[in-house]
């Protein structure tokens, strides 16, 4: 692909829209070509690309754009968000202690909690990711990683990335932030002190519900990062060329989609907070949310397109309401152009603490008045 020297001074939004300005070298087309080649002709055995699992041309553009959007030194894409998270877990080595929030994506929590001990990790889960709680859980010489998810699924709690990063670094540990819900549009964790950012790229980065992918972006290319890069080659959690092509397609509209969803989510949250059939709305954009002040400080331009609410009449009423929506699709996942609704307790494992009256909503890009009317009729 041709890189016409996309200006460093250009905004992140322009970088996304233009996909860093890379063009098709054969035609000059503004849509990059798909490069599915598994292997490459080499001028010598000491130079050039070897094999797509090791170094794929299909990844160059999407990884370059991700690094630019997050202000990082390098990025890697993976076959799924869980593959990206697993790469971090496996990079720590036996004997490492990890501190993570109890409220996080349940599959990642389950990996750390149940699979981690098999490869030598120990784990402490905290109800509140605050410095005083970290200090109480810290194991000198053993704690190697602090895992943050902010806003976190499904209560959308907010963690102060800068404060946690400062504390962790002072005590010799790294910080990883799962910023899937915030996206680089709203938060840049590396600028706040984090070492690595994780995205389930299936969600907002792709935004069209047709790609399963994950991504990591690092603040620096240090020895730990090189271990992670080496493990992707050896473990094989790589993304297909077509999926990488679809991912860069989706990222070109990332800013428009996230801003639209965020503005609509705030409107919906404000409406539901006054609804007689709703007992609680969980959205960091509401002043009533416990993490609102931190969110207002570290998120820019909005508070995201995810919210949850609790139905006053209980679990059965919540289940019934989720089945009556006409625009909101009853489905798992989030971050796509269409709005989704999910009874979260029904899809998590038995250890889940999510209450049965809670419904999780992923706000898409439909007209917000249509979405509000749909929720009103579903709630009855």
Q: Helix share of residues?
A: 25-40%
Rg for CA atoms: 21 Å
Profile the largest sheet.
7 strands, mixed
The total count of helices amounts to 14
Question: By helix and strand content, what is the structural category?
Answer: alpha/beta
Architecture of the largest domain, CATH level 2?
3-Layer(aba) Sandwich
CATH class group of the largest domain? Alpha Beta
Let me know the average pLDDT. Answer: 94
Describe the protein in words.
This protein is α/β, with parallel strands linked by helices. The chain has helices at 12-17, 60-70, 81-91, 106-115, 131-137, 161-170, 183-186, 223-235, 241-251, 254-272, 292-298, 315-324, 344-347, 368-379; strands at residues 2-3, 22-23, 74-78, 97-101, 122-126, 143-149, 174-178, 196-199, 214-218, 278-282, 306-311, 329-330, 340-343, 358-362. Strand 7, helix 7 (183-186) and strand 8 form a beta-alpha-beta unit. The protein starts with a strand and ends with a helix. The model has no long low-confidence stretch (mean pLDDT 94).
List keywords for this structure.
Aspartate Aminotransferase, domain 2; 380 residues; alpha/beta
Produce the secondary structure layout:
Elements lengths: L1 E2 L8 H6 L4 E2 L36 H11 L3 E5 L2 H11 L5 E5 L4 H10 L6 E5 L4 H7 L5 E7 L11 H10 L3 E5 L4 H4 L9 E4 L14 E5 L4 H13 L5 H11 L2 H19 L5 E5 L9 H7 L7 E6 L3 H10 L4 E2 L9 E4 H4 L10 E5 L5 H12 L1
Parallel strand pairs: 4-5, 4-6, 6-7, 7-8, 12-13
Antiparallel strand pairs: 1-2, 3-9, 8-9, 10-11, 11-14, 13-14
């Amino acid at each position: 692909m041709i890189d016409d020297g996309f200006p460093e001074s250009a905004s992140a939004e322009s970088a996304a829209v233009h996909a860093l300005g890379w063009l098709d070298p054969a035609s000059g087309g503004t849509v990059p070509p798909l490069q599915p080649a598994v292997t490459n002709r080499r001028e010598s055995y000491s130079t050039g690309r070897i094999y797509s699992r090791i170094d794929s041309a299909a990844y160059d553009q999407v990884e370059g754009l991700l690094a630019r959007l997050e202000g990082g030194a390098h990025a890697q894409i993976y076959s799924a968000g869980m593959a990206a998270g697993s790469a971090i877990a496996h990079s720590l080595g036996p004997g490492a202690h990890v501190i993570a929030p109890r409220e996080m994506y349940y599959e990642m929590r389950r990996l750390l909690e149940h699979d981690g001990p098999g490869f030598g990790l120990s784990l402490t889960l905290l109800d509140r990711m605050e410095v005083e709680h970290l200090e109480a859980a810290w194991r000198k010489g053993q704690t190697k990683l602090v895992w943050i998810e902010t806003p976190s699924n499904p209560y959308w709690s907010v963690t102060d990335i800068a404060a946690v990063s400062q504390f962790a670094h002072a005590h010799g540990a790294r910080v990883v932030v799962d910023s899937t819900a915030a996206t680089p549009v709203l938060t840049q964790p590396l600028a706040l002190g984090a070492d690595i950012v994780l995205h389930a790229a299936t969600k907002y980065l792709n935004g069209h519900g047709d790609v399963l992918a994950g991504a990591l972006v690092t603040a620096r290319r240090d020895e730990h990062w090189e271990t992670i890069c080496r493990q992707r080659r050896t473990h094989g959690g790589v993304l297909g060329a077509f999926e990488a092509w679809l991912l860069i397609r989706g990222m070109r509209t990332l800013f428009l989609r996230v801003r639209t969803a965020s503005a609509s989510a705030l409107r919906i949250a404000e409406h539901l907070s006054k609804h007689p059939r709703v007992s609680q709305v969980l959205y960091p954009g509401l002043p009533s949310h416990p993490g609102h002040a931190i969110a207002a400080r570290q998120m820019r331009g909005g508070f995201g397109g995810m919210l949850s609410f609790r139905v006053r009449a209980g679990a059965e009423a919540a289940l019934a309401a989720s089945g009556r929506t006409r625009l909101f699709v009853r489905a798992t996942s989030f971050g796509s152009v269409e709005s989704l609704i999910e009874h979260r307790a029904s899809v998590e494992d038995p250890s889940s603490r999510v209450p049965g009256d809670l419904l999780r909503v992923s706000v898409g890009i439909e007209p917000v008045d249509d979405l509000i009317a749909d929720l009103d009729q579903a709630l009855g």
